[in-house]
Every structure is written in structure tokens, then in C-alpha cells.
Design brief:
- By secondary structure, the chain is an all-alpha fold.
- It has a domain at 1-226.
- The chain has helices at residues 3-31, 34-54, 58-65, 71-98, 100-106, 115-129, 132-138, 142-166, 170-199, 210-235, 237-245, 248-257, 262-284, 288-325, 333-340, 350-356, 360-384, 389-415, 419-422, 425-438, 440-448, 454-471.
- The protein is globular.
Amino acid sequence: MNLSRQTVVVAAARLTTQAAIVISGIVIGRFLLREQAGIVQKGLLVTNMCILMGMFGIQTFLYTALPKTPDENKRSLFVQSLLFLSVIGALLATAVFVGRVPLAHYLNAPEMTSLLMWAALSILLSLPAGAAEPLLIATGHPWRALCMAIPASCLQLAVLFYACVFAPDNATAIPKAVFIGLTLAALTRVIIGLFHAATTLRGKWMPTQWHQSLKDMMSFILPVGAVSIIDTLAVLLDRNIVARFFSSGDYALYAYGAAEIPLIGLLIGSVTPVLLPEFSRLFHQGKTTEMTELWHRACLKTATVLFTFFTLFMFIAPSFLVLLYSETYRESSLYMRIYLCMLPLRITAFMPLLYVLGKQNLVLVGSVGDLTFNALLSLTLVCLTPLGMAGAAIATVTSTICQSVFYLSVIRRSLNLPWNRLLPWAQLARKAVFCLLCFLPTAAIVISLPTMSPLAICVIGGVNLTLCLRMANFRI
């Protein structure tokens, strides 16, 4: 299976998982009052932070190490990673459970205390579940990753729909169902990962030289894990600040707006696990020119989609949010449009290339700088200006731009390339102008017919999107 097809299969698996998250968000937004929805979103903030930080670079390690590991050692490598994540999951889950009362008060949502008990359970299982997908993809079975995502996502949604239909009190049942569903989905992934290791991989379940194997893993994941923690803090910093200083109802507005378009996250998330092993192979063979060309092709392919979605959602953001979450969240479009400004930055897959080039320490420097600058700017704009919650979003976008420029300079020096050859700038500029011109009809309709229904506007935008991609001759 070629890289493009692998990306499609991985994207389908990520789409399935992302669809469950989006549908859960829709249910929360439509079935609960805004204040109640904000409490659930704050609980999810705690859960996501623990999971993302707790992964500690293990997934990146598996994507990088498994393709180079002898077949007889792959099973033990997976089990070692699974156990490591299980220990981290147990520690973080215990911390959330024990500290649920002060944590809920710190986030300005004391009603969230009981909900954090269920969040702790989902953290406990979600961390070891994170080792399953890298195992399936890096061992050449992306289709199994898709087959794993489908039952896990269906089970997650089944619990939520049961609470909506049969529970006598939605306000109590739905928040619990969100976290119970996450827990069962994670358990499904753990079981499937272990089944794959038992039936497909060979060798012992535990490394023969346990201490040396653990030492090798730690030498890789310590810098990567540190970057992962800092990046998570930086990415979710704006949400933490808003959750701390604003009510749960206000946080719900921010959370539904200042979020990545679902399709975009899965696109980037699908490209990285496919490119990382390939970059590693080419660099190991000394084929840096071929690696750079592959990076350029990935950038151009990704840019076609990202520039298209950026332009479309700039015009239809209010209608899109109303259609998904109800009229209550129309004001969230401000934060969505600010966040959209990060899309053009995501055409480049920074991390796979930086890790393969051995620049983990400089990635750590970039992450620390991003977090520090983001924190200072966010607090300044939120607390000392009338921007309010918008200040947190603006600070996040600004710090991300600065970090991207730094990473590009590191890659340029490592590959010994001039700036004009670092990326296919001319082709990227043509794609950006093309997308802007393509969506002028949608812009004209939105501006001239402000009372048009959100559904009609989104349908028109969808048709325009299809035509734009068709005219761009986009192919998988």
C-alpha cells in the first residue's frame, strides 16, 4: 500500500474517532444548558490534558522504533510501552481523583467535582489505549486501525444515546455518559491491540534485557515526552485561562468556537504517522534529497485542503456553529475565525522531520518559548485589555506563528537549504489565491443574504467546496 493510500486509511480511522467526538459535542450542546455544557467541557479539558501529557512521546517512539525493530522483538516493545502508559495512567487518574475538589474550584466549576471521578476512570484506560493505533499502523496494518476505531466509536456513542433516550434526567446522565463512553472505547482499543500482538507479532511478551530496553526507550522519549507535555500546555493554555477566569457558560462559548475543524485535525494526524516511518527510513539511508521532496509533496497535498477549508469557514463560521450546536453558540464564531488563522501554518509536518533530523532538543526549546510567550501574551490580553476571551485565542495564534518560523529555520539549517527552496512557496501562493477566488460566490451570498438559513448557507458552502477541490484537481 503506497503512502497516499495509507494516509487515506489512517484518515478514515481518525475520522471515525473524530466523528464520535463531534457527535458527542453536538449532543452536549443541544441537550444541555450552556452552563451545564461548560461544566462537561471543563471536565473534558482536564481529561484531554492528562491523556495528551501522559502519552509522553510513547506514540512517537512506537512510530519511529517499530519499523526498525526486528520482528521477534516487536511484541515485547509494544508490551513494554503498554505497561509504561498504564503506570502513567494510574498515577494521573489517582491524582485527578484525589484532587478533584480543589481542581474543580480552581477551574471555577465546583459542580464538576463528582464528574471528575468518571474523568479519572477514562484517563486510567485511555493512556494504555494510546499504544494500540501506533502498533497497527507501524507494523503495516492500517486497515486494522480502522477496524478498531469503528467498534470503539460506536460503543462510545451508544452509551451517550442511551443516556439521551432512556435516562430520566439528561442533565445528570449525559455528563456521566460522556466519560463512561470514553472509558469503554479505550478498553476496546486495549483489547484489540493485545489481540493483534498475540496473533500477528512474534517473540517474547517481555524484553529479554529489560533494563537495556527500558533505557533505550527512555533515552528517546524523555526529550520527546518533555516536548509533548509543554506542547499540550501551550495548545490548551488558552482554554485553561478562560476556564479559570470565566464562568462555565462563557467557557462553553469559547470551547465550541476556539476549536480545530474536525476534518483538519484528522488530516494532520493521519499524515504524521505515515510520514514519520518513511522519513526515518529515507534519512537512515542517507536520501535527504528524496526526504525533502517527499516533505514538499506532503505540504502541497495538505495545502490544497487546508487553504480550501480556511477560506470556506471564514465565510460560513456563524452558520456552521448554529447548525451544529444551536443558536446559543452563534457568538462562538468570533473565536473560530481567530483560530482559523492557524490553518495555513499546518501545511508543514514539522514534528516528523524534526524528530528524524535528531532535533529533539531544539524542538524542546521551541516548545518552551511558545509556552512562555503564549502565557505572557494571553494573561496580558485577557486581564489588561477589553478583548476578554478573544485575547486568549489571539495570543495562541500569535505564539504559534512565532514557533512555526523558529521550526522552519531549524529545518532549513539542518538540510542546508536556502529559504527560497525550503518550501514550494510559489505553488503555495498560487493555491492560496485560487482558493480565495473560488469562494467569492459563497462570500457574496453570505454578505448579500444575511437572513438565509444556516443549513442553506452550509449546503452552498459545501457545493462550493466540492467544486473548488474538483477545479484544483485534488486527488488522494
